[in-house]
Every structure is written in C-alpha cells, then in structure tokens.
Amino acid sequence: MMNKLFSVLFFLIDVWILSRGDAEVSCQLGQSCILPCRFTPGDDLEIHWFKMTPTLTEVNSFCYNDKDQWGHLDQKFGGRTSLFKDQISKGNASLQLTGVMVQDEGRYQCHTSTVTNKNTSLLTVRIVCDAEVSCQFGQSCILPCRFTPGDDLVIHWIQLTTTQAGFHSYYDNKDQLEVQDKRFRGRTSLFQEQMSKGNASLQLTGVKVQDEGPYRCLTSTITETGEFYIDMKVYAPPQKINMKQTENQIICSSDGIYPEPDLSWSISPPSSRTFQNTTRVQETEELLYNISSSLTLSDREDDLDYICTISTPSNQRRASWRRGHNPHVTIIIVLTVIGISAVVIALVFFCRRRRRNAQRKAAEVSSVASNTEIILGVGKNEGPSVIRGESLGSVMAPEESDGSAATPDETLDLDEAGGLTLARGVAGGSAVA
User: Fold this and answer.
1) How far apart are CA 261 and CA 235, in angstroms?
2) Which of 322, 343, 358 is the C-terminal boundary of a domain?
3) Same-domain pairing of 122 and 141
4) Domain span at residue 191?
5) pTM
6) Please, what's the b/e burial string for 179-201 (b: 16 or more CB within 10 A of its CB; e: otherwise)?
7) Which mean pLDDT values do the consecutive 10-residue runs of the chain (433 residues) have?
8) 151 and 228 share a domain?
9) Assigned domain for 381 exists
10) Residue 53's closest CA among 13, 128, 104?
C-alpha cells in the first residue's frame, strides 16, 4: 500500500516539475551546447535524457555500471551527445550536444534515479544563429556571409544536414564545384566582384523545399578564419483561393502552399450557429501542400457571406462567397419567366395581327365606298340627294331621243319636284315612271 502511495507521489512530483519548467538554454546553430542537469549523488545511479516528442525520443542513457546505453538512442543524436563522466559522482548529469541543428530545438527531460532519490528536470532548448533568411519557393535567394578581407581566400558553404552536404566552394581564385551535391548543381553562385570587400554571400536560384535548413559559411585567409551560420526558411504563400458551390456545399481550395497551411471558416454577419465542414490536405511531389475544405450549408440562412481563410505562420489569404438560391427554386423561377414571356409574345403577335386585319378591311371598305358613292344632284327644297346604285358600275345620263327604241337598261328622269328618279326598263321597252 505504501509503495503505491510513494509511486503516485513521485508521479505527481514529476508532473508538477514538467509543468513548471526549470530552465531555458540558447544554443548556437552548428556549435556545441551544454544542457544542465543536477541530482543528489547516490548508489545505483541511472541517467536518462529524452527529447519530449510524442514518442519521447531517447537522447542519452547512462546506468550504474558506468556505461552509456546506446541501444534505444535516436539516430538523429548518434555521435552528438555525451555526459561529463568525471563530474557524475559530484551530481552533474549535464549533457553536451555537438553540431547543434535547427531540429534540436524543443523541450528536453533529464531523469535521474538512485537508491534513495529520484529527480526529473525539464528544460527548453532555443536555437540561435547569425542570421535567419526566408526564401520564397521557386525564386532566388541570397544567403549572407561576411569576413575580413585577406589573401589566399577560401570559402566553403555547407548545408548542415546529417550528411553535411557540400554546397559551394571557392579557392585558388575560382569556384570548386567537383564535390558539390547534385541537388545544387547550376543553382549556386558567389558575388566574386564583391569578395575583395569581404562579401562571401551566396545566391541560390530556384528555391526548393528541400533547401530549407541550417547552413554554415566557412571563410579563411592567411590571417583569419571565420564561421557564419544561417537558418534558411522556405515559404510558398497561398497565391489564389478557389471557391465554388455544389448543391448544398461550398468548397474552398488552394494549391502549392508551404509550410502546411491551416484553413478556417467564418460567417458575415457573425452567427452563433455551427456549420459542418471537412478539410483535406495533400502533399505533392515537390513537398508543397494542397488544401481543400467543404462546408455544408443550412437551408434556413441565405443572406450570409461565407469567408474562407487559408494561413501559414507568415502569410494569410481569404476569400468570400455569397450563397446562391436553391437550384430547384431557380429552375422553377426560370421556367415561370420563360412561360410568362411566351404568353406576352403570343398576345403581342395576336394583337398586331388583329389590328393589321382590321386596318386592311377598313381600307377595302373605304375603297368600295369611294368607287360607288356618286353625288347625283341637288333638290329644290331638300338639298343634295345621293342615289346609290346596286352594283351598277356606272351611272348613265339621259340621251336625246332620236325616235328609236330605248336601248339602255336604266334611264334618269327629272320629276315634277325638280329631282332625279332612277327608272329601270327592259331592253326594247319604254321606261316606267
């Protein structure tokens, strides 16, 4: 029972120590660095150093048999860590880390135990360098390096990876690229006209994600040797955001981004309602990232602006989308408009045709009337009288009788009142009054 209580107590102490943190150490890029750790000396000593990753990466282990334990050591730290064994008996469990790299930055745990005591301390390692340079993917970038001018100049640029890749060398007054790593061939150059002024800066073209990391510039002359450390960061900002609506979803996407981006949705005007979204990230062969997210829309809210924001640690871009109408409603509206338009066109056509027919008939009636109306005379008391013929074609004036029979079918006679009377007769007969 007591053992269990002590175990729980030690666990709580460890958690408390880890939560508060004990120290922060700044380490120069490419140099050696000491991570401090103290304990109370005792028998059966064990020392364990871990880097606090999700899997607790083992950095160095030492057991009471006075031997380092390398069995579970992470390869990234192989040959780069050591303890001060002559100081262990005095309670010094500090760790020396050589060839510091950017990847070494983070939190470390030093755990010591003896027969009588257990101790855990936590420290944070910060990596510092002479310069930090941000280079855009696909562009040219200059890595700075200065030195004191002198004779017999030698310049070596090295990428500080596990293989210490040869980057660019200059000596005997010319570039020496025989051992240059093939990844950099044709992409590096020095400013040779500036060397006499102490400028050993290097230009790198066509920047790639693989170029990211620490670099060391080594310079030497007859009188002086120098080192300059640069931490190079590569970035590819989101250039364009594509947005589209598919049924009840809005899709936001962007391609060719580095480092891995974040995507978030927001609404204008702000709303307390939550919306379901799904985000997917893909890595390309160039180690860039494509990101896409779909947001499921609500049927109840139409007048909203949906804002998609894509961001990296150094860049941010956003785009907005106003939701369209329900496609089924839109189809119905379009069909309704088309139907109404067709009816209106048909009515206009019918009215115009009817008006043209009416005008044509009126013209025909007017023409017939003008051809058949004849003012035949004026009465003594009643004014003008108009005699309408029955499709006569013409009105014939009376001719003087020469004593022969009347041949016209119709004759006009003057009545006693002074008017005209139309008399119809039979050919060869006499006119009837």
Assistant:
1) 11
2) 322
3) no
4) 131-235
5) 0.59
6) ebbeebeebbebeeeebeebbbb
7) 45 47 81 92 90 84 62 75 90 91 89 91 90 95 95 93 81 92 93 95 96 93 93 94 90 96 90 84 96 84 83 92 59 77 83 81 71 48 44 41 43 45 42 35
8) yes
9) yes
10) 104
